[in-house]
Amino acid sequence: INPDGQAIGPRLIRAELLDTTAERVIAVETDGMYNRLVEERVHENFNAILVGLMGQATRGARRLLRRFSDPKEKGGLGLPVYVFVDGDPWGEHIYSVIKYGSAEAAHLEGLACPDAQWLGVWASDIENYELPYDKFNKQDLKRCRDLLYGSLGPPPEDWLKKQEVLNNQKPKGKFSPEERQLMKKALSKGGGRRKKQRAYLPPDP
Fold it and tell me: Nearest Cα to 96, choosing from 80, 78, 118?
């Protein structure tokens, strides 16, 4: 057994899964946090399989997580999967891709874990427990808008028509009433894929 773990490649993805005494799977966003959890022996203390994602999870990592979560009668391990990501829009996107899949791989089966659960800090935790935080930059705000508008398909026509106007009214750190109304319309008219994305996380500041 390699003490540093195994790289997720075709050989590991296609390998037969043997029974395990582990009770859960924890998928970790960053390599640094993965190494820290190994140092703290989280895999032993929580009887867990740790999977390092190194950012956005590859298809191989997502397929392996799905196999871990599939019931034993389907060749899986039947383990709950927890996704430990940063409490920011980038972490939310990584979580949503693991839970619901990505637009680019929508034609492939077995890449999503519908039962995957969020593990980490909520934005509301920052307020409730007065935690330190970094301010959003322009890229962070763009990612928020991508998630809210739904970036998994072409936006509605009314969104395209008003985009130029909104670009001249973008507030710093907050959404204008016009933007909020537009987001609501985009989410309600954006098709099944975007409707599914509406509730991928509970409402949070």
Answer: 118
Give the closest residue to 25 by CA, choosing from 55, 49, 7: 49
**Which residues are within 8 A (CB) of 200 and not within 5 positions of it... i.e. 6 or more apart?**
95, 96, 99, 100
Separation between Cα atoms, residue 79 and residue 100, nearest integer Å: 18
User: Sign of torsion, CA 106 76 94 177?
Assistant: positive
Per-residue pLDDT tens digits for 110-133: 788 889 999 988 878 888 888 888
CA distance 28 to 10: 20
pLDDT in tens, 44-98: 999 999 999 988 888 888 999 999 999 988 888 899 999 999 888 888 889 988 9
Bridge partner residues of 119 (DSSP)? 84
Strands (E), 129-194: none
Could you give the dihedral angle defined by the CA atoms of residues 25, 30, 35 and 36, in that order, rounded to the nearest 10 degrees? -90
Task: Supply the pTM of this predicted model.
Answer: 0.68
The DSSP symbol for 87 reads S
